[in-house]
Write a structure and sequence with these properties.
Probably part of an ABC transporter complex. Probably responsible for the translocation of the substrate across the membrane. The protein is 78% helix and 0% strand. The mean pLDDT is 83.
Length: 277
């Protein structure tokens, strides 16, 4: 009898429609990068831009065509002006970003780990972070002169605050039971920092690097527009004053490529430092 009942149940299960079966829902979230879609989007935008310029919908004076921009960029490359401006900008960008990042990491770890530094550090950052850093450039020029030190100071000052915030937040989010476990095994403070706190805070710190690098590029261009003979910002300003919109857009394209290169380098740094995850 039991054998007959088992056969009936098996027949019913085999006769059930696929629609009545419950599908697996716990797929999670795992977005994938699609380079083809990314490059396809850029190609589509450039094609529409060129089409608008060719048909006269977009004025050549207000927005030169991609072909005109490419010719202007090639002319800057051939004459060597691009490398002169780009080299000056890279020196300021790298120097200012390193100074602001080192100072921000140091202060961020102090604020995140020690009670005596937390209250004054948070109050200092909260008071000065909302200030537009470019508004302080005239003050930096008074302090350091109109040469390179004022530009380095502007970039470093702008990079410092987001680095402090992300470092402090990363350290603060490290699981306290892991720290207590390391201390219970009598690990010295430096080992706790190196083996527990730093790896736990590193993802947030690296995310802060992306923010601070974007801020550094913005402040770099603003500082070069105010007082610089060479630099991408100076190139864009001079082209705008002479109504050379093709060179102006060429300078903007160089900035966009610079941002892409920085993002790629930070992505490689992420994969290298976070390979343990």
């Amino acid at each position: 009898m039991s054998h007959d009942i088992s056969e009936v149940r098996a027949e019913r299960q085999s006769a059930a429609s696929p629609a009545s079966q419950v599908r697996f829902r716990a797929t999670g979230f795992n977005p994938k990068a699609n380079p083809v879609a990314a490059w396809g989007f850029f190609v589509a935008v450039i094609a529409l831009w060129q089409l608008g310029s060719s048909t006269g919908v977009i004025s050549e004076l207000a927005m030169p065509s991609p072909v005109a921009v490419a010719k202007a960029l090639w002319q800057l490359i051939v004459t060597g002006d691009l490398w002169l401006h780009l080299g000056a900008s890279l020196q300021r960008l790298v120097g200012g970003w390193i100074m602001g990042t080192v100072a921000g990491l140091f202060v961020g770890f102090l604020v995140g780990m020690f009670s005596w530094a937390r209250s004054p550090g948070v109050a200092f950052v909260s008071a000065l972070f909302p200030i537009p850093k470019i508004a302080l450039l005239p003050l930096f020029i008074i302090w350091f002169g109109i040469g390179e030190p004022s530009k380095f100071a502007t970039i470093a000052f702008g990079v410092f605050f987001p680095t402090v915030i992300n470092t402090f937040g990363g350290v603060d989010n490290v699981q306290r039971n892991l720290i207590r476990m390391g201390q219970s095994f009598d690990l010295p403070m430096w080992s706790v920092i190196r083996k527990i706190i730093l790896p736990g805070a590193l993802p947030t710190i690296l995310s802060g690097f992306r923010i601070s690098s974007s801020i550094a590029i913005i402040l770099l261009i603003a500082a070069e527009m105010i007082g610089a003979q060479y630099g991408i910002g100076a190139l864009i300003l001079a082209a705008g004053n002479l109504y050379q919109t093709d060179q102006l857009i060429a300078g903007v394209v160089v900035l966009s490529l610079l941002g892409l290169c920085v993002s790629w380098l930070l992505g490689r740094l992420d994969r290298w430092l976070l390979a343990w995850r």
